[in-house]
Design goal:
By secondary structure, the chain is mostly helical. It contains 2 helices and no strands.
Length: 74
């Protein structure tokens, strides 16, 4: 009976180890999706707004005046 009890304990320890590993991977994935994903979206939005502002400032500094001969005649 001692050998069978030892095998059962080893099997239980193995299952416990795999369960903890699966739980760790699941929590890590959850954290990435719930906590870090909004940060990435916020960073994308900030970068997008930065480039829009940069383009706006560029257009204000160097305005493009387009004159068509038809509009001058009017």
């Amino acid at each position: 009976m001692d050998l069978a009890d030892g095998i059962i304990k080893i099997f239980e320890l193995g299952l416990t180890f795999w369960g903890c590993l699966i739980a760790y991977k699941g929590l890590k994935t959850w954290r990435e999706q719930v906590i870090e994903a909004p940060k990435i979206e916020l960073a994308r939005e900030i970068i997008e707004q930065f480039y829009k502002m940069r383009d706006l400032v560029k257009r204000v500094r160097f305005p493009e005046v387009v004159c068509y001969p038809e509009s001058i005649k009017k």
